[in-house]
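Sample entry (205 residues):
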Amino acid sequence: MNHQTNEPPMSQRAHRLAHVAQTRAALAAIESGTLTEHERADLLRMREEEKVARDVYLQLYDRWGIRPFGNISGSEQAHMDMILLLLERYGLPDPAQGLAIGRFNDPALQSLHDDLLARGRQSQAEAVRVGLLVEELDIFDLRVAASRTGKPEILAVYADLERGSRNHLRAFHRWMRQLGTSYTPTHLSAGDFDTIARAAHESCH
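Predicted structure, serialized as tokens:
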């Protein structure tokens, strides 16, 4: 599969690269502390969880050509890059280093990827449901991880990623409505999901 065709427009890529560079500079100006076990585990998992989103979206874009999968896969790469900045800052190993698309170190995330991809390849409607599931899971997990840290730099990155995930959820929700299908949230409450889905686009990378 040739994933080069899935790249976002140059202006979008440049904006994302600039955002990551800006975050790198901001992190360098803050003195780092010591991670708790929860913080360490959350950062390592989040690096691969964002890879799940990127890899599934790349492959579903190849299968269906639905625009959000192509556009959002680039944003998920930026999310991976942001988490990598935190791993580097704290001297943590990169669990995604050298892994091909669709390959993961965490067995649970490997299983999640494989299940999501199999479901998403069934139909366009199911693919969009997979996108919604991935984004609400990201939002849920980012909120849990944020509740287990008090470090402002980690909280800032998590908040940044959650804004992106809320926008992604809205994009998939619009496609869901266009396809005339439905979706029942499993990680967020129905009210929270609906509020996010119907809110205006937020400014982010």
